[in-house]
Write a structure and sequence with these properties.
CATH superfamily of the largest domain in chain B: Zn peptidases
CATH architecture of the largest domain in chain B: 3-Layer(aba) Sandwich
Largest interface: A-B, 43 and 42 residues
Structural class of chain B: alpha/beta
Radius of gyration of chain B: 20 Å
Distance between the termini of chain A: 51 Å
Strand content of chain B: 25-35%
Distance between the termini of chain B: 46 Å
Structural class of chain A: alpha/beta
Helix content of chain B: 10-25%
Radius of gyration of chain A: 20 Å
Number of strands of chain A: 17
Largest sheet of chain A: 13 strands, mixed
Strand content of chain A: 35-45%
Number of strands of chain B: 18
Number of helices of chain B: 6
Low-confidence stretches of chain B: none
Strand order of the largest sheet of chain B: 1-2-4-3-5-9-7-8-10
Oligomer: heterodimer
Low-confidence stretches of chain A: none
Mean pLDDT of chain A: 95
Chain lengths: 312, 308
C-alpha cells in the first residue's frame, strides 16, 4: 500500500511528496523500514527498493510482518541530480531529528523521524557520492556497535566499519533513530549517479537473510558466494589516502582488492604536460574498500581507504 | 600594510587557488576579520575590501594604534565567486563546515586548516557570514553559546541586536564555534544577504567593525557610539511559518514593530492571484528576520520575531 509520509506544498501547482510502500503479510507485528535517497545523487538504493518490493509482493505468503520501503527521502534532489535539498544549504543528513517549528527541510526531517521511530529495524542505504566507489559495507558508530554489529553481520556485506563518534554526525538520520532506540544500520555501496547491480543483488540477499533472522521472512535466502567473509574493522585500522597533487587520477586497482605493500594503486597525472604528478602507493598491505571514481582531483581529495589488520 | 599569500594550491585546470591576507601593524595579535567563505558572499567581500581600504587610509594618516596586529582576509573562496557558485566548485562542500580543518584531509578541510592556522591566537575574531536561508535581518552580531563567549563584548559593535545561539551538532564545524573553542572571542557580524551588494548595510557593518576596533584601542576612529545592543537568545525568537505555498507579498520589513494579529504578508496563488493565506503576527514583537525569496514553500520560515 502506497502511503504519503509528508506532503509539502510547493509554490506552483505541485507538492513535495515523500512516499512509502508498506507491505504486510502474515500476523507478525515486526516492522522493518528500508530508506534511501537522502542524497539526491545516490541511486544504488533505488535498485534495492525495486527488488525487495518486487520479491515481497510476489511472495506475500512468506512475509510475516511489515516492510516499509521509502525510495526517496529527498525527491526534489533525486529529480534534479542535486545532492542536497534544492534551495536549502544544509545537508539533509545533518538536520535530524528535525524541528517541527523549523524550516521546510527541518520540518520534513522531523516528520520522517516520527514515521520511522519504533521500527524494529531501519536500513538507511547510501551510495557514497559521485567521487568514490565503495565496496558494500555497513557503517556503525562505535557508540552503537555492541547492539548493531551482530545485526549487520546478517547482511553478508564485505566490510563492517565501526567508526569513531563525531559531534557533527549526531545530526544524521541513523544517529537520531538509534538515540530513540530504533536500531538503524547505514549501508554504503557503489558510487553516486549509478547502479551497481551486483552489489545490489548482494544486499538484497543480505536483507532477506536479516529479515529471516528477525522472523519477518520465511522464504529462501541466497547463499553468499563460497569463501565470502565479512571483514570487521575493529581488529585493525583504516588508512585514508589523500591526493598530494592536483591533477587527474588514474586508478590501477579496483576496490575490494587486497593491495600488497608498496603496490601502486593509482596515479595522478598532468594532462597538459604529459607527466606523472604522484604515484599513489600503499605502504602496508591492506583491503582497499574505497577508491576514487571521479578523475579530477585537488590536493587533499580522498583517493582510497585501506583497511589493514592489526592495531596501529 | 602587508599583502600576503596565506595559502596557495595548484588546480588541475584553473589558475592557482590563492587566499590573500592584509596585515596591518605589528605586535599583539588583536583582531582578525574573515569575509567571504562562499562564492555568493559578495556583500561580505565588499565590506572587507572597504575595511582594507579604510585601514590603509588610517595607516597613512597615523590613526592605527601601534602595538596591534590586525589581519583582514576578504575571501577564502575566490574560485567559487569567480564562477558564480556558493560552495567549493569541485565537490560543493562548504568551507565554513570544515573547521578547525585537517591539513591531511580533504581539500576544503585543508583550506579550512590553513585559514585557521593563520587566524588563530587573535584576541578577537570577526566573521562576516551569510545565513543558510535567503532573507534579510536587522543588523546584528551573532555568537555561539560555547561557555567561552562574552556577550558584553559583542555590544561594542553598537549594532541593534546581539543574538546568542545554542550550537547544534552542525554548528560545531563552523569558524565561529572553533574560534571560541580556541580562545579567540568570536563574533559573526551580519553584513547583509548573499548574492547582492547593499551599500547602506555595508556602511553599517563597516562602521560597527571600526567602532569595535576603536573601543578596544586598536585604531583612532570618531563615530557615534551606535546602539546599546539588545541581547536576544535565539530560542526566544518566534518563527512565523507559511501555512501555504505561493508568491509572498510582504507587508512589513525587518526592524518593524508589529502587533499581535497584524498582517505581515499575503501568500498569493501563482495562477490566479487570489489570496491563499494571510500571514499574521502571532505575538507582539519586532521583525528580526524576513524571508526575501518571492516564492515560498509550505512550512517555510517567513519571519522571525523578537517578542516584545
Amino acid at each position: 500500500m502506497i502511503k504519503t509520509v509528508t506532503s509539502t506544498e510547493l509554490p506552483v501547482d505541485e507538492h513535495l511528496l515523500i512516499r512509502k510502500n508498506s507491505i504486510s503479510g502474515g500476523s507478525g507485528k515486526k516492522r522493518i523500514c528500508i530508506v534511501t535517497g537522502t542524497h539526491g545523487d545516490e541511486l544504488e538504493g533505488q535498485y534495492i527498493c525495486y527488488r525487495i518490493g518486487s520479491i515481497l509482493q510476489e511472495h506475500l505468503d512468506l512475509l510475516d510482518g511489515t516492510v516499509e520501503i521509502y525510495p526517496a527521502l529527498n525527491p526534489l534532489g533525486i529529480d534534479s541530480i542535486t545532492r542536497g535539498i534544492p534551495n536549502f544549504d544544509l545537508d539533509m543528513n545533518r538536520i535530524f531529528p528535525g524541528d517541527p517549528m523549523g524550516s521546510m527541510a527541518e520540518n520534513t526531517a522531523y516528520n520522517l523521524i516520527e514515521d520511522l521511530k519504533g521500527a524494529d529495524l531501519v536500513l538507511d542505504i547510501h551510495s557514497s557520492n559521485i567521487f568514490l566507489y565503495e565496496v558494500p559495507q555497513v557503517r556503525i558508530n562505535q557508540l552503537t556497535a555492541e547492539r548493531l554489529v551482530p545485526l549487520a553481520r546478517y547482511l553478508n556485506l564485505d566490510f563492517l566499519w565501526v567508526h569513531e563518534a563525531a559531534t557533527v554526525l549526531e545530526a544524521t538520520l541513523a544517529y537520531s533513530l538509534n538515540a530513540l532506540d530504533t536500531p538503524t544500520l547505514v549501508v554504503e555501496m557503489g558510487v553516486g549517479m549509478r547502479i551497481t547491480q551486483s552489489y545490489g543483488d548482494q544486499l538484497v540477499g543480505g536483507i532477506l537473510n536479516l529479515m529471516r533472522h528477525l522472523g519477518v521472512w520465511k522464504g529462501e535466502v541466497p547463499e553468499p558466494p563460497a569463501g565470502h567473509k565479512t571483514i570487521l574493522s575493529t581488529g585493525g585500522t583504516v588508512e585514508f589516502i589523500n591526493a598530494s597533487a592536483s591533477g587527474v587520477f588514474i586508478p590501477l586497482i579496483r576496490q575490494s582488492n587486497q593491495a600488497e605493500a608498496g603496490q601502486t594503486i593509482g596515479r595522478i597525472v598532468d594532462p597538459l604536460h604529459g607527466s606523472i604528478l604522484q604515484d599513489v602507493v600503499v605502504e602496508q598491505p591492506g583491503f582497499v574498500f574505497t577508491i576514487r571514481a571521479y578523475p579530477v582531483v585537488y590536493e587533499g581529495s580522498l583517493l582510497a581507504r585501506v583497511y589493514r589488520e592489526g592495531k596501529a | 600594510m602587508k599583502r600576503e599569500r596565506l595559502f596557495v594550491m595548484p588546480s588541475p585546470f584553473r589558475d592557482e587557488f590563492r587566499i590573500h591576507g592584509f596585515r596591518f601593524g605589528s605586535g599583539k595579535k588583536s583582531m582578525a576579520v574573515v569575509g567571504a567563505m562562499r562564492g555568493d558572499e559578495l556583500q561580505q567581500q565588499f565590506v572587507c575590501s572597504r575595511l582594507v581600504h579604510t585601514l590603509q587610509d588610517m595607516e597613512e594618516s597615523g590613526k592605527l594604534v601601534p602595538g596591534h596586529e590586525i589581519l583582514i582576509i576578504p575571501s577564502a573562496n575566490p574560485f567559487a565567486m569567480n564562477i558564480g557558485k556558493r560552495f567549493w566548485a569541485m565537490d560543493n562542500t562548504d568551507i565554513n563546515r570544515m573547521f578547525p580543518g585537517y591539513p591531511l584531509g580533504e581539500t576544503t578541510q585543508r583550506i579550512a586548516a590553513a585559514l585557521f592556522e593563520h587566524i588563530q591566537g587573535y584576541q578577537f575574531g570577526v566573521h562576516l557570514p551569510s545565513y543558510y536561508l535567503p532573507g534579510d535581518f536587522i543588523p546584528h552580531v551573532r555568537m555561539m553559546h560555547t561557555g567561552y563567549e562574552n556577550v558584553e563584548l559583542a555590544r561594542g559593535f553598537g549594532l541593534p541586536y546581539t543574538l546568542v545561539r545554542n550550537p547544534l551538532p552542525i554548528d560545531t564545524t563552523t569558524l565561529n564555534y572553533n574560534w571560541q573553542i580556541w580562545e579567540t572571542q568570536a563574533f559573526s557580524v551580519y553584513a547583509g544577504p548573499a548574492g547582492v551588494i547593499d551599500v547602506s548595510i555595508a556602511d553599517v557593518c563597516l562602521s560597527a567593525i571600526l567602532r569595535f576596533m576603536d573601543l578596544h584601542g586598536f585604531i583612532h576612529y570618531r563615530s557615534h557610539p551606535g546602539y546599546h545592543s539588545e541581547v536576544v537568545q535565539e530560542e526566544e525568537l518566534i518563527n512565523v511559518k507559511a501555512c501555504r505555498a505561493g508568491i509572498m507579498y510582504s507587508m512589513c520589513r525587518p526592524d518593524e514593530i508589529v502587533r499581535r494579529g497584524q498582517r505581515l504578508a499575503r501568500i498569493l496563488d501563482p495562477y490566479d492571484g487570489s489570496v491563499r493565506w494571510e500571514v499574521r503576527a502571532p505575538e507582539d514583537g519586532t521583525v528580526f528576520f524576513m524571508q526575501t525569496s518571492p516564492m515560498v514553500l509550505e512550512n517555510s520560515v517567513l519571519f522571525r520575531l523578537i517578542p516584545s
